[in-house]
Amino acid sequence: MYTAADPLAKVEKDSEEYRDHIGTINAEGRRAWVYAKKPKGRFFQWRSLVSYILLTLMFAGPYVRIHGQPLLLLNILERKFILFGFVFWPQDFYLVVLALLTMILTIVLFTSVFGRIWCGWTCPQTVFMEMLFRKIEYAIEGDFQAQKQLALSPWNANKIIRKSAKFLVFYGFSFAIANTFLAYIIGSDELFKIITEPVSQHIGGFIAINLFTIVFFLVFARFREQVCHFACPYGRFQSALVDNDTISVTYDFKRGEKRGTLGVRKKAGFSLSDAVAAGGVTSAEASAGQSSSNPFGDCIDCGACVVVCPSGIDIRNGIQLECVQCTACIDACNKMMDAVSKPRGLIRYTSFNSITNGYKFPLKWRTLGYLTVWLGVLSVFAGLLLTREKIETVLLRQPGMLAQRLPDGFVGNLYNAKIFNKTFDVQQAELRLAGGVQGELRLIDKLNTITAQNFAEARFFVALKPEAITAPNFPVEIEVWSNGAVVARKKTIFISGGATTP
Ligand code: SF4
Ligand code: SF4
């Protein structure tokens, strides 16, 4: 226990105590609400800029059109995905899987080198929470101390008005996010129908919007950092990806320790500008005045990095699972270092090994392994994307139908064709029976012009003269023509099934 007589005892106490509990749970096992101080500084400005770009992209994604297609669409219900105007149909699902795999590997690679940089700068949870909802909260309830006071105050007019206003605005934004989220899944046209047409025609959509709104509202009004601590799977496995070479928001303990407030230093007989001792001294030595070496580092134990932390942790305890690398503590500490005329960067982006052994580029076998796999998957993905068929045809025999004797004596098999136009041009498609067979292809439905990034369906008979049928089953070839040129040849089976007998 720290006493005036033993000023160094506090800084030498066992600092491992934080491992016994998490910052957002109090001694009674209850949620300890985090009232984070409003961050200010260079990193916060950069993060704000990045978040404005991301928020614009996120909200605009389903509504902006490229060649008539939305910028982004993730219709998992119909397995239709659109990325930057490129449509991926169910036949391209392997590409979507590869794209997701590439994305996961990108995160793994970046986590191994740069820690949770994704969480702090680009994760939608952090962007919405810290750059939208938290800012609304500061605007309505004030900074952290005012928020704390408001929470503790009785329910008076001021509290009712501020809390109601905050939750109303939170609900409004949650509603907007829910609509946008749904637009990503079903498309903005469908969403527009749900909004404008009678509720009775879109019960499912109406329930989905309200359900998503409630979920988003609860996430940003109540669960907040708990989502990162307990719900996010990435947060859980990141500890397996980082190591002592990973660059992340880190407290320079070599420079900062032993920490001590200006008061503690003064009582121990040191000033902030005294040179720091190479190995420090013990509290007993300092109390007994046995050493004149300054044991204190640059950390003035002001707590600015702790009060600003939205995860409720102390970065000086080292890398912790709860840290989302938001950089707020870097800004807070830099401000304090400026105030006491010490160099900035006591908390900075660096690695444990950089602090202990000097700079070391964190490219090692494990990272090289991730990089190799990542480059391999990325190349396969890019190769398959660039070489995928521009006009793809899926041809199937009509299930359950046998060969038919047609009125003109020909023998027919019924087929279904689905032609996907993956280009940005209009295609005038045609289907023809490949030469060398005594027969013809008879369309039942007219094959319409296929607009860009769209598809058309057609049913048709392959009608053969009876004398052309030489076996119970034999292959025939269908040519797919588009804008006057053959774009694909599809083989299928013709089944005579005894229909050759008059
Ligand atoms: S420790 Fe620093 S970087 Fe990590 S969450 Fe807290 S404020 Fe953000
Ligand atoms: S803000 Fe900097 S000086 Fe203040 S307690 Fe944190 S690390 Fe120490």
Considering DSSP H and I runs of 4 or more, what fraction of the residues is helical? 40-55%
Q: Structural class, from helix and strand content?
A: alpha+beta
Distance between the termini: 106 Å
Shape: elongated
Mean pLDDT: 85
Outline the biggest β-sheet.
5 strands, antiparallel
Number of domains: 3
Task: Tally the beta strands.
Answer: 15
Put simply, the count of helices is 18
Question: Strand portion, in percent?
Answer: 15-25%
Cofactors and ligands present?
A: iron/sulfur cluster
Q: What does the radius of gyration come to?
A: 33 Å
Unreliable runs: 1-11, 278-291
Explain how this protein is built.
The protein folds into three domains: 57-116 and 126-241, no CATH class; 243-357, no CATH class; 391-495, Immunoglobulins (Immunoglobulin-like). α7 (157-186) packs across α9 (203-223). With 502 residues, it is α+β, with helices and mostly antiparallel strands. The chain is elongated. A hairpin with a 4-residue loop joins β3 (72-75) and β4. The chain has 18 helices and 15 strands. One iron/sulfur cluster binds next to α16. One iron/sulfur cluster is lined by residues 251, 256, 259, 299-305, 316, 332-333, 336, 346-347.
Supply the key terms.
alpha+beta; 18 helices; Immunoglobulin-like; 502 residues; binds iron/sulfur cluster; three-stranded antiparallel sheet; 15 strands; five-stranded antiparallel sheet; disordered N terminus; 17% strand
Summed up:
By secondary structure, the protein is α+β, with helices and mostly antiparallel strands. 43% of the residues lie in helices and 17% in strands.
